[in-house]
Amino acid sequence: MSLNGKVAIVTGSGAGLGLAYAQELARQGASVVVNDVNEDVTNRAVQSITDEGGKAFGVTAAVGSTETAEKLVNAAVEEFGQLDILVNNAGILRDRSLLKMSDDDFDAVINVHLRGTFTCVRAAYDYFKNNEVKGRIVTIGSPTGQRGNFGQTNYAAAKAGIVGMVRTWALEMKRAGVTVNAIIPVAATAMTETVPFFSAAIEADKAGEAMPDFFRKDLGFGPVADVAGLVAFLASDEAQNISGQAIGVGGDRLQVWSHPEPVATEFNDGGWTYDALQSKGRTVIENNLQEVGEKMPELPAELQPKA
Ligand SMILES: NC(=O)c1ccc[n+]([C@@H]2O[C@H](COP(=O)([O-])OP(=O)(O)OC[C@H]3O[C@@H](n4cnc5c(N)ncnc54)[C@H](O)[C@@H]3O)[C@@H](O)[C@H]2O)c1
């Protein structure tokens, strides 16, 4: 089965992962509305798709507002006659530890990722419902949203929020036959290029060599093309039974993430007063403390960043 005849929007698809998603969707037969904030970047992405024989149309606009969301849906309908697939990928980083993070740092990240996902999904779902389209929505989470990460208060809030919205939307969209999932990607892009931990992998990739197995398998880290297949699959008719999931992919690795579940349940007649918590509740909590932060395997000596 292919995506022939389908129409997709991919936000932030001028570069990085978004570009790989747009190219893969086009390769599988979909017509793609490409979007980015910079006109040249948008046009180059459109060109890269049409050069390969695919169909693409560019919309230069900043994702976040309702106006942009509606512009994107309208572009799909006006240029290609319909909408079937929305991939909400646009994103930025403004990393700082909590005390250094400004209101602007917080708002900018929340606006693109969290608000942008909300406004675009609302506009696409409105179209799907009114036109009885069993649409496909793919949103983008992050290991940081799942586990937390030092210096990423704003990004952790946005990415955890996206997965929270996906769980809610899967319930709301079920009757309409629309699926919505979050993917949790890890890949070599401008966003990860400067992380010293990945430098041996980035160097190999830039030299046109395969990344070492440690990165591809233990870390689930590879080039952007490794993530694009999952987006195309979730956008296909075959993925009709998959909704409300958070699915990790990168390098050779595919992971299905759990949603939060209680790990311990205890009862106290009359409720959990301060006294009851001191005597009995404390042990229940302390015996079940959960770890935070991403679990990173140790980097082998030969793959350490060069000083
Ligand atoms: N690279 C990774 O390992 C990784 C891991 C987890 C999540 N992600 C997520 O994947 C997505 C893509 O990341 P990437 O690594 O390709 O980043 P990137 O910086 O390489 O690309 C992001 C693209 O989005 C565009 N963009 C930024 N703000 C925009 C806006 N308001 N409207 C439209 N376009 C906008 C940028 O111009 C850029 O072209 C992001 O949501 C990111 O948080 C990436």
Automatic annotation (TrEMBL):
Keyword Oxidoreductase included in the entry's annotation: yes
Pfam families in UniProt: adh_short
Stretches assigned to the Ketoreductase domain: 6-194
Keywords of this entry: Oxidoreductase
Coiled-coil stretches noted in the UniProt entry, renumbered to this chain: none
Family the entry assigns: Belongs to the short-chain dehydrogenases/reductases (SDR) family.
Name by which UniProt lists this protein: SDR family oxidoreductase
Taxonomy of the source species: Bacteria, Bacillati, Actinomycetota, Actinomycetes, Micrococcales
